[in-house]
Amino acid sequence: MAVWRCCLQDNRGDHKALVHASQKEGDPLCRVPVKEKIRKIPLMFALGELGRLGLLFFALTAPLSKSISAILMGIVGVFFLIVLLRRPKGLAFLLRDPVFWATASFTSVYLLGLLWSEDLAAGLKISRRISYILGSYVLCALFLKGAEDGLRMVKVLVLGTVLLDILAVGKFLGFGSQRAFTLPSAVIMNPIWFGNVSAVALYGSLFLFLHHLEGKGKVSYLWGISALINLMGVLLSNSRGPYGAAAVVLLLFLFPILWRQRMGKAILALCLALLVLLPLHPRFQRKLWIVGREVKAFLSEGKLRGSMGRRLGMWKLSLDMFLDHPIIGVGTGDYELEVERRTVGEWALLRKYNQPHSIYFHALAMQGLLGIVALLSFFAVIVRESLRQMREGGLGRILGLFALAVSMHYLIAGLSEAVLKIHVLVVMLGIVVGACFSWRRGFVKSLGDV
User: Residues 262, 265, 266, CA angle at the centre, nearest 5°?
Assistant: First the structure.
Protein backbone atom coordinates (compact mmCIF):
# COMPACT_ATOMS: atom_id res chain seq x y z
CA MET A 1 0.00 0.00 0.00
CA ALA A 2 2.80 2.34 0.87
CA VAL A 3 4.49 1.57 -2.43
CA TRP A 4 1.39 2.49 -4.42
CA ARG A 5 0.74 5.70 -2.48
CA CYS A 6 4.32 6.77 -2.99
CA CYS A 7 4.07 6.16 -6.71
CA LEU A 8 0.78 8.01 -6.94
CA GLN A 9 2.20 11.04 -5.18
CA ASP A 10 5.25 11.03 -7.46
CA ASN A 11 4.26 11.06 -11.12
CA ARG A 12 7.68 9.68 -11.94
CA GLY A 13 6.45 6.25 -10.91
CA ASP A 14 5.99 3.74 -13.66
CA HIS A 15 2.37 2.74 -14.32
CA LYS A 16 3.33 -0.93 -14.44
CA ALA A 17 4.75 -0.62 -10.94
CA LEU A 18 1.42 0.79 -9.77
CA VAL A 19 -0.48 -2.13 -11.22
CA HIS A 20 1.98 -4.65 -9.80
CA ALA A 21 1.82 -3.12 -6.34
CA SER A 22 -1.97 -2.97 -6.42
CA GLN A 23 -2.21 -6.68 -7.15
CA LYS A 24 -0.28 -7.80 -4.08
CA GLU A 25 -2.26 -10.25 -2.00
CA GLY A 26 -3.89 -8.66 0.98
CA ASP A 27 -3.43 -5.11 -0.24
CA PRO A 28 -6.55 -3.22 0.88
CA LEU A 29 -6.25 -0.89 -2.07
CA CYS A 30 -7.29 -3.79 -4.29
CA ARG A 31 -10.79 -3.25 -2.90
CA VAL A 32 -10.84 0.42 -3.94
CA PRO A 33 -13.62 1.10 -6.48
CA VAL A 34 -12.58 1.32 -10.14
CA LYS A 35 -13.60 4.99 -10.36
CA GLU A 36 -11.33 5.80 -7.45
CA LYS A 37 -8.43 3.97 -9.07
CA ILE A 38 -8.97 5.86 -12.32
CA ARG A 39 -9.03 9.14 -10.41
CA LYS A 40 -5.61 8.33 -8.97
CA ILE A 41 -3.94 7.77 -12.39
CA PRO A 42 -1.47 10.63 -13.04
CA LEU A 43 -2.91 13.17 -15.49
CA MET A 44 0.18 13.36 -17.68
CA PHE A 45 0.36 9.59 -17.98
CA ALA A 46 -3.32 9.44 -18.97
CA LEU A 47 -2.85 12.17 -21.57
CA GLY A 48 0.10 10.31 -23.03
CA GLU A 49 -1.85 7.06 -23.34
CA LEU A 50 -4.94 8.75 -24.78
CA GLY A 51 -2.85 10.77 -27.22
CA ARG A 52 -1.04 7.68 -28.45
CA LEU A 53 -4.30 5.74 -28.81
CA GLY A 54 -5.87 8.65 -30.67
CA LEU A 55 -2.95 8.76 -33.10
CA LEU A 56 -3.37 5.06 -33.86
CA PHE A 57 -7.06 5.52 -34.71
CA PHE A 58 -6.16 8.63 -36.71
CA ALA A 59 -3.73 6.57 -38.82
CA LEU A 60 -6.27 3.75 -39.20
CA THR A 61 -9.04 6.03 -40.49
CA ALA A 62 -6.88 8.33 -42.64
CA PRO A 63 -7.36 6.28 -45.85
CA LEU A 64 -11.02 5.57 -45.08
CA SER A 65 -12.66 8.81 -43.99
CA LYS A 66 -11.54 12.42 -44.23
CA SER A 67 -14.04 13.64 -41.64
CA ILE A 68 -13.43 10.94 -39.01
CA SER A 69 -9.65 11.23 -39.26
CA ALA A 70 -9.91 15.03 -38.95
CA ILE A 71 -12.06 14.71 -35.81
CA LEU A 72 -9.58 12.27 -34.27
CA MET A 73 -6.68 14.56 -35.06
CA GLY A 74 -8.57 17.40 -33.41
CA ILE A 75 -9.13 15.32 -30.27
CA VAL A 76 -5.43 14.45 -30.10
CA GLY A 77 -4.73 18.14 -30.62
CA VAL A 78 -6.74 18.94 -27.48
CA PHE A 79 -4.59 16.51 -25.48
CA PHE A 80 -1.56 18.20 -27.02
CA LEU A 81 -2.68 21.64 -25.83
CA ILE A 82 -3.37 20.40 -22.30
CA VAL A 83 0.12 18.92 -22.11
CA LEU A 84 1.68 22.15 -23.34
CA LEU A 85 -0.25 24.18 -20.76
CA ARG A 86 1.27 22.03 -18.04
CA ARG A 87 4.68 21.81 -19.70
CA PRO A 88 5.21 25.01 -21.75
CA LYS A 89 8.76 23.99 -22.71
CA GLY A 90 7.79 20.44 -23.57
CA LEU A 91 8.60 20.71 -27.28
CA ALA A 92 11.98 22.39 -26.91
CA PHE A 93 13.65 19.19 -28.13
CA LEU A 94 12.20 19.83 -31.61
CA LEU A 95 14.59 22.75 -32.02
CA ARG A 96 17.35 20.19 -32.57
CA ASP A 97 15.33 18.06 -34.98
CA PRO A 98 16.23 18.53 -38.69
CA VAL A 99 13.03 16.84 -39.89
CA PHE A 100 10.95 19.27 -37.84
CA TRP A 101 12.77 22.26 -39.33
CA ALA A 102 12.43 20.90 -42.86
CA THR A 103 8.70 20.34 -42.34
CA ALA A 104 8.19 23.72 -40.67
CA SER A 105 10.10 25.53 -43.43
CA PHE A 106 8.09 23.77 -46.13
CA THR A 107 4.83 24.76 -44.45
CA SER A 108 6.05 28.33 -43.86
CA VAL A 109 6.61 28.90 -47.58
CA TYR A 110 2.91 28.24 -48.21
CA LEU A 111 1.95 30.67 -45.46
CA LEU A 112 4.43 33.25 -46.75
CA GLY A 113 2.88 33.00 -50.21
CA LEU A 114 -0.38 34.30 -48.75
CA LEU A 115 1.20 37.76 -48.42
CA TRP A 116 1.02 38.35 -52.19
CA SER A 117 -1.95 36.11 -52.94
CA GLU A 118 -5.11 37.57 -54.46
CA ASP A 119 -7.32 34.57 -53.72
CA LEU A 120 -6.83 34.30 -49.96
CA ALA A 121 -9.65 31.79 -49.51
CA ALA A 122 -8.01 29.29 -51.87
CA GLY A 123 -4.58 30.06 -50.41
CA LEU A 124 -5.71 29.44 -46.85
CA LYS A 125 -7.32 26.15 -47.86
CA ILE A 126 -4.11 24.92 -49.50
CA SER A 127 -1.98 26.11 -46.56
CA ARG A 128 -4.28 24.42 -44.05
CA ARG A 129 -4.05 21.15 -45.96
CA ILE A 130 -0.25 21.18 -46.20
CA SER A 131 -0.01 22.01 -42.48
CA TYR A 132 -1.30 18.48 -41.76
CA ILE A 133 2.26 17.27 -42.36
CA LEU A 134 3.68 19.54 -39.67
CA GLY A 135 0.74 18.90 -37.32
CA SER A 136 1.05 15.13 -37.62
CA TYR A 137 4.78 15.28 -37.02
CA VAL A 138 4.50 17.41 -33.88
CA LEU A 139 1.72 15.23 -32.42
CA CYS A 140 3.73 12.08 -33.08
CA ALA A 141 6.81 13.68 -31.52
CA LEU A 142 4.83 14.41 -28.38
CA PHE A 143 3.05 11.10 -27.91
CA LEU A 144 5.10 8.30 -29.50
CA LYS A 145 7.40 6.59 -27.00
CA GLY A 146 9.79 4.91 -29.41
CA ALA A 147 10.30 2.92 -32.58
CA GLU A 148 7.72 0.35 -31.46
CA ASP A 149 5.00 3.00 -31.43
CA GLY A 150 6.17 4.25 -34.82
CA LEU A 151 5.88 0.73 -36.21
CA ARG A 152 2.35 0.42 -34.76
CA MET A 153 1.38 3.61 -36.59
CA VAL A 154 2.63 2.11 -39.86
CA LYS A 155 0.74 -1.13 -39.20
CA VAL A 156 -2.64 0.52 -38.60
CA LEU A 157 -2.13 2.80 -41.61
CA VAL A 158 -1.54 -0.28 -43.76
CA LEU A 159 -4.53 -2.11 -42.26
CA GLY A 160 -6.82 0.83 -42.99
CA THR A 161 -5.70 0.79 -46.61
CA VAL A 162 -6.11 -2.99 -46.83
CA LEU A 163 -9.78 -2.53 -45.90
CA LEU A 164 -10.06 0.06 -48.66
CA ASP A 165 -8.44 -2.26 -51.21
CA ILE A 166 -10.67 -5.18 -50.21
CA LEU A 167 -13.70 -3.01 -51.00
CA ALA A 168 -12.19 -2.19 -54.39
CA VAL A 169 -11.55 -5.88 -55.13
CA GLY A 170 -15.16 -6.64 -54.18
CA LYS A 171 -16.36 -3.91 -56.51
CA PHE A 172 -14.20 -5.32 -59.31
CA LEU A 173 -15.70 -8.79 -58.77
CA GLY A 174 -19.22 -7.38 -59.02
CA PHE A 175 -20.34 -7.23 -55.39
CA GLY A 176 -22.73 -4.46 -54.42
CA SER A 177 -24.67 -4.37 -57.70
CA GLN A 178 -21.58 -3.26 -59.62
CA ARG A 179 -20.71 -4.47 -63.10
CA ALA A 180 -17.90 -7.00 -62.72
CA PHE A 181 -14.41 -6.75 -64.20
CA THR A 182 -14.50 -3.07 -65.12
CA LEU A 183 -11.58 -0.68 -64.67
CA PRO A 184 -10.84 1.51 -62.86
CA SER A 185 -12.22 -0.11 -59.72
CA ALA A 186 -11.69 2.38 -56.91
CA VAL A 187 -13.82 3.22 -53.88
CA ILE A 188 -14.37 6.38 -51.82
CA MET A 189 -11.93 8.48 -53.86
CA ASN A 190 -10.58 9.33 -57.30
CA PRO A 191 -8.79 6.35 -58.97
CA ILE A 192 -5.47 8.23 -59.16
CA TRP A 193 -5.61 9.05 -55.46
CA PHE A 194 -6.66 5.49 -54.73
CA GLY A 195 -3.68 4.08 -56.61
CA ASN A 196 -1.21 6.27 -54.73
CA VAL A 197 -2.76 5.44 -51.35
CA SER A 198 -2.54 1.71 -52.13
CA ALA A 199 1.09 2.10 -53.24
CA VAL A 200 2.09 3.72 -49.94
CA ALA A 201 0.47 0.84 -48.05
CA LEU A 202 2.15 -1.67 -50.38
CA TYR A 203 5.60 -0.48 -49.30
CA GLY A 204 4.54 -0.68 -45.67
CA SER A 205 3.22 -4.23 -46.10
CA LEU A 206 6.41 -5.39 -47.79
CA PHE A 207 8.70 -3.92 -45.14
CA LEU A 208 6.53 -5.32 -42.34
CA PHE A 209 6.71 -8.68 -44.11
CA LEU A 210 10.50 -8.36 -44.21
CA HIS A 211 10.68 -7.33 -40.55
CA HIS A 212 8.63 -10.29 -39.29
CA LEU A 213 10.32 -12.70 -41.69
CA GLU A 214 13.70 -11.86 -40.16
CA GLY A 215 12.25 -12.72 -36.77
CA LYS A 216 10.92 -16.01 -38.17
CA GLY A 217 7.39 -15.03 -37.22
CA LYS A 218 4.37 -16.65 -38.86
CA VAL A 219 2.70 -13.26 -38.89
CA SER A 220 4.97 -12.43 -41.85
CA TYR A 221 2.61 -14.43 -44.09
CA LEU A 222 -0.25 -12.12 -43.14
CA TRP A 223 1.78 -9.09 -44.21
CA GLY A 224 2.64 -10.92 -47.42
CA ILE A 225 -1.08 -11.34 -48.13
CA SER A 226 -1.58 -7.69 -47.20
CA ALA A 227 1.06 -6.71 -49.78
CA LEU A 228 -0.76 -8.64 -52.50
CA ILE A 229 -4.06 -6.94 -51.61
CA ASN A 230 -2.38 -3.52 -51.72
CA LEU A 231 -0.83 -4.41 -55.08
CA MET A 232 -4.30 -5.25 -56.38
CA GLY A 233 -5.37 -1.77 -55.27
CA VAL A 234 -2.58 -0.20 -57.32
CA LEU A 235 -3.50 -2.24 -60.39
CA LEU A 236 -7.26 -1.69 -60.05
CA SER A 237 -6.74 2.08 -60.05
CA ASN A 238 -5.79 1.72 -63.73
CA SER A 239 -3.68 4.89 -63.42
CA ARG A 240 -0.34 5.43 -65.11
CA GLY A 241 1.13 7.64 -62.37
CA PRO A 242 0.74 5.32 -59.35
CA TYR A 243 1.61 2.29 -61.47
CA GLY A 244 4.82 3.81 -62.83
CA ALA A 245 5.97 5.15 -59.45
CA ALA A 246 5.29 1.82 -57.72
CA ALA A 247 7.17 -0.09 -60.43
CA VAL A 248 10.25 2.14 -60.07
CA VAL A 249 10.25 1.95 -56.26
CA LEU A 250 9.84 -1.83 -56.29
CA LEU A 251 12.65 -2.32 -58.78
CA LEU A 252 15.14 0.14 -57.32
CA PHE A 253 14.55 -0.15 -53.58
CA LEU A 254 12.64 -3.26 -52.62
CA PHE A 255 14.14 -5.73 -55.08
CA PRO A 256 17.69 -5.77 -53.61
CA ILE A 257 16.35 -6.06 -50.05
CA LEU A 258 13.60 -8.65 -50.41
CA TRP A 259 15.56 -10.82 -52.85
CA ARG A 260 17.81 -11.98 -50.01
CA GLN A 261 14.92 -13.85 -48.39
CA ARG A 262 13.43 -17.05 -49.85
CA MET A 263 9.85 -16.06 -49.09
CA GLY A 264 10.71 -12.50 -50.06
CA LYS A 265 11.71 -13.77 -53.50
CA ALA A 266 8.32 -15.43 -53.94
CA ILE A 267 6.31 -12.36 -52.89
CA LEU A 268 8.47 -9.96 -54.88
CA ALA A 269 8.47 -12.18 -57.96
CA LEU A 270 4.67 -12.28 -57.91
CA CYS A 271 4.46 -8.49 -57.53
CA LEU A 272 6.92 -7.91 -60.36
CA ALA A 273 5.18 -10.46 -62.58
CA LEU A 274 1.89 -8.61 -62.24
CA LEU A 275 3.59 -5.27 -62.90
CA VAL A 276 5.40 -6.65 -65.97
CA LEU A 277 2.42 -8.52 -67.43
CA LEU A 278 0.05 -5.57 -67.16
CA PRO A 279 1.76 -3.56 -69.96
CA LEU A 280 1.18 -6.52 -72.27
CA HIS A 281 -2.58 -6.12 -71.93
CA PRO A 282 -4.11 -4.57 -75.08
CA ARG A 283 -5.94 -1.94 -73.04
CA PHE A 284 -2.70 -0.74 -71.47
CA GLN A 285 -0.86 -0.72 -74.79
CA ARG A 286 -3.65 1.33 -76.32
CA LYS A 287 -3.33 3.88 -73.51
CA LEU A 288 0.40 4.23 -74.23
CA TRP A 289 -0.33 4.73 -77.93
CA ILE A 290 -2.89 7.40 -77.09
CA VAL A 291 -0.37 9.22 -74.86
CA GLY A 292 2.13 9.35 -77.72
CA ARG A 293 -0.50 10.76 -80.05
CA GLU A 294 -1.53 13.40 -77.50
CA VAL A 295 2.07 14.55 -76.96
CA LYS A 296 2.63 14.81 -80.72
CA ALA A 297 -0.55 16.86 -81.17
CA PHE A 298 0.53 19.32 -78.48
CA LEU A 299 4.08 19.76 -79.74
CA SER A 300 3.17 20.10 -83.41
CA GLU A 301 -0.19 21.89 -83.30
CA GLY A 302 -0.55 23.21 -79.73
CA LYS A 303 -3.76 21.21 -79.27
CA LEU A 304 -4.85 19.81 -75.91
CA ARG A 305 -5.93 16.29 -76.74
CA GLY A 306 -6.69 13.91 -73.89
CA SER A 307 -5.28 13.91 -70.37
CA MET A 308 -1.65 14.09 -71.47
CA GLY A 309 -2.26 17.03 -73.78
CA ARG A 310 -4.05 18.90 -71.01
CA ARG A 311 -1.20 18.19 -68.61
CA LEU A 312 1.28 19.63 -71.08
CA GLY A 313 -0.91 22.70 -71.42
CA MET A 314 -1.09 23.17 -67.64
CA TRP A 315 2.67 22.71 -67.32
CA LYS A 316 3.28 25.38 -69.97
CA LEU A 317 0.96 27.80 -68.18
CA SER A 318 2.74 27.09 -64.88
CA LEU A 319 6.10 27.71 -66.51
CA ASP A 320 4.81 31.02 -67.88
CA MET A 321 3.68 32.01 -64.37
CA PHE A 322 7.13 31.14 -63.04
CA LEU A 323 8.90 33.15 -65.74
CA ASP A 324 6.72 36.17 -64.94
CA HIS A 325 7.33 35.82 -61.17
CA PRO A 326 10.55 33.76 -60.87
CA ILE A 327 11.43 34.41 -57.22
CA ILE A 328 8.18 34.33 -55.26
CA GLY A 329 5.63 33.01 -57.76
CA VAL A 330 2.07 34.24 -58.24
CA GLY A 331 1.07 33.50 -54.63
CA THR A 332 -0.38 30.57 -52.70
CA GLY A 333 -3.83 29.75 -54.06
CA ASP A 334 -3.62 31.96 -57.16
CA TYR A 335 -3.02 29.19 -59.69
CA GLU A 336 -6.67 28.97 -60.79
CA LEU A 337 -6.97 32.75 -60.97
CA GLU A 338 -3.91 32.97 -63.22
CA VAL A 339 -5.12 30.14 -65.46
CA GLU A 340 -8.39 31.99 -66.01
CA ARG A 341 -6.46 35.08 -67.09
CA ARG A 342 -4.11 33.22 -69.40
CA THR A 343 -6.51 30.88 -71.24
CA VAL A 344 -8.56 31.74 -74.27
CA GLY A 345 -10.20 29.71 -77.00
CA GLU A 346 -9.40 26.01 -76.96
CA TRP A 347 -7.24 26.27 -73.84
CA ALA A 348 -10.21 27.51 -71.81
CA LEU A 349 -10.96 23.91 -70.85
CA LEU A 350 -7.95 24.06 -68.50
CA ARG A 351 -9.94 26.35 -66.20
CA LYS A 352 -11.75 23.40 -64.66
CA TYR A 353 -8.53 22.04 -63.12
CA ASN A 354 -7.44 23.45 -59.75
CA GLN A 355 -3.82 22.26 -60.05
CA PRO A 356 -1.32 21.54 -62.85
CA HIS A 357 -0.97 17.81 -62.11
CA SER A 358 2.64 18.13 -60.96
CA ILE A 359 4.06 19.04 -57.55
CA TYR A 360 7.04 20.68 -59.26
CA PHE A 361 5.14 22.94 -61.65
CA HIS A 362 2.64 23.73 -58.89
CA ALA A 363 5.46 24.91 -56.60
CA LEU A 364 7.08 26.93 -59.39
CA ALA A 365 3.79 28.63 -60.25
CA MET A 366 2.66 29.48 -56.70
CA GLN A 367 5.95 30.24 -54.91
CA GLY A 368 8.60 30.41 -57.65
CA LEU A 369 12.18 29.46 -56.82
CA LEU A 370 11.34 29.80 -53.13
CA GLY A 371 8.71 27.09 -53.46
CA ILE A 372 10.71 24.59 -55.50
CA VAL A 373 13.72 24.95 -53.16
CA ALA A 374 11.49 24.36 -50.11
CA LEU A 375 9.90 21.32 -51.76
CA LEU A 376 13.18 19.69 -52.76
CA SER A 377 14.82 20.56 -49.43
CA PHE A 378 11.98 18.91 -47.52
CA PHE A 379 12.33 15.64 -49.40
CA ALA A 380 16.13 15.84 -49.33
CA VAL A 381 16.06 15.92 -45.52
CA ILE A 382 13.63 12.98 -45.45
CA VAL A 383 15.94 10.96 -47.71
CA ARG A 384 19.04 11.89 -45.69
CA GLU A 385 17.45 11.00 -42.36
CA SER A 386 16.09 7.76 -43.83
CA LEU A 387 19.57 6.69 -44.91
CA ARG A 388 21.01 7.64 -41.53
CA GLN A 389 18.34 5.64 -39.71
CA MET A 390 18.86 2.63 -41.97
CA ARG A 391 22.53 2.53 -41.01
CA GLU A 392 21.66 2.49 -37.31
CA GLY A 393 19.75 -0.81 -37.63
CA GLY A 394 16.97 -2.16 -35.43
CA LEU A 395 13.37 -1.09 -35.90
CA GLY A 396 14.64 2.28 -37.04
CA ARG A 397 16.04 0.58 -40.13
CA ILE A 398 12.61 -0.71 -41.17
CA LEU A 399 11.04 2.70 -40.56
CA GLY A 400 13.84 4.40 -42.49
CA LEU A 401 13.36 2.06 -45.44
CA PHE A 402 9.62 2.74 -45.44
CA ALA A 403 10.09 6.51 -45.29
CA LEU A 404 12.63 6.35 -48.14
CA ALA A 405 10.29 4.30 -50.35
CA VAL A 406 7.34 6.61 -49.67
CA SER A 407 9.36 9.78 -50.32
CA MET A 408 10.64 8.35 -53.60
CA HIS A 409 7.09 7.44 -54.59
CA TYR A 410 5.87 10.99 -53.96
CA LEU A 411 8.76 12.46 -55.93
CA ILE A 412 8.10 10.16 -58.90
CA ALA A 413 4.29 10.23 -58.82
CA GLY A 414 4.50 14.00 -58.33
CA LEU A 415 5.87 14.36 -61.85
CA SER A 416 2.39 13.89 -63.30
CA GLU A 417 0.08 14.48 -60.31
CA ALA A 418 -0.10 17.18 -57.62
CA VAL A 419 -0.03 14.62 -54.81
CA LEU A 420 0.57 17.35 -52.23
CA LYS A 421 -2.76 19.00 -53.04
CA ILE A 422 -4.76 15.83 -52.32
CA HIS A 423 -5.95 15.69 -48.71
CA VAL A 424 -5.61 11.95 -48.10
CA LEU A 425 -2.10 11.84 -49.59
CA VAL A 426 -0.95 14.86 -47.57
CA VAL A 427 -2.29 13.30 -44.36
CA MET A 428 -0.66 9.95 -45.15
CA LEU A 429 2.67 11.64 -45.80
CA GLY A 430 2.40 13.42 -42.45
CA ILE A 431 1.67 10.12 -40.69
CA VAL A 432 4.61 8.41 -42.40
CA VAL A 433 7.06 11.19 -41.53
CA GLY A 434 5.81 11.36 -37.94
CA ALA A 435 5.81 7.59 -37.40
CA CYS A 436 9.24 7.07 -38.95
CA PHE A 437 11.22 9.95 -37.42
CA SER A 438 9.54 11.86 -34.58
CA TRP A 439 9.93 9.07 -31.99
CA ARG A 440 13.72 9.58 -31.94
CA ARG A 441 13.33 12.64 -29.75
CA GLY A 442 10.00 11.72 -28.19
CA PHE A 443 8.76 13.82 -25.27
CA VAL A 444 6.20 11.32 -24.01
CA LYS A 445 8.89 9.36 -22.17
CA SER A 446 8.88 12.12 -19.58
CA LEU A 447 5.15 12.91 -19.52
CA GLY A 448 4.87 11.40 -16.06
CA ASP A 449 7.99 13.06 -14.73
CA VAL A 450 6.29 15.99 -13.04
Answer: 95
Domain layout of the chain by residue ranges: 2-41, 93-283+357-446
DSSP 8-state assignment for residue 53: H
Please say if the pLDDT value at position 88 is more than 90. Answer: no
Contacts of 109 (CB under 8 A, 6+ apart): 367, 370, 371, 374
Q: Which residues, at least 6 apart from 376, have a Cβ–Cβ distance to it below 8 Å?
A: none
Phi/psi for 260 (5° steps) reads: -75, -20
Question: 321 — phi, psi (to 5°)?
Answer: -60, -40
pLDDT tens string 157-198: 999 999 999 999 999 988 876 678 888 888 889 999 999 999
- CB-based contact 329:321 (threshold 8 Å): yes
Residue from 117, 225, 158, 167 nearest 405 by CA: 158
For 47, 49, 145, 150, 445, the CA distances from 13, given in Å and listed in that order, are: 15, 15, 16, 24, 12
Confidence of residue 106 (pLDDT cuts 50, 70, 90): very high
**How long, in residues, is the chain?**
450
Q: How far apart are CA 255 and CA 269, in angstroms?
A: 9
* The Cα angle at residue 162 between residues 265 and 229, in degrees rounded to 5: 40
Chain segment 358-401, per-residue pLDDT in tens: 999 999 999 999 999 999 999 999 999 999 998 888 888 999 99
Q: Which residues contact 178 (CB under 8 A, 6 or more apart)?
A: 171
CA pseudo-torsion sign 96, 99, 105, 111: negative
Taking the C-alpha atoms of residue 249 and residue 246, their distance in angstroms, rounded to an integer, is 5
Residues contacting residue 444 through CB under 8 Å, at least 6 positions apart: 48, 51, 52, 142, 143, 144, 145
Dump the DSSP string for 201-267: HHHHHHHHHHHHHHTT-THHHHHHHHHHHHHHHHHHTT-HHHHHHHHHHIIIIIHHHHTTSHHHHHH
HSE, CB side, 13 Å, CA atoms: give it for residue 340: 8
Cα(371)–Cα(337) distance, rounded to whole angstroms? 18
Distance separating alpha carbons of residues 10 and 448, to the nearest angstrom: 9
Ramachandran angles phi, psi of 209, nearest 5°: -60, -45
- Predicted model pTM: 0.85
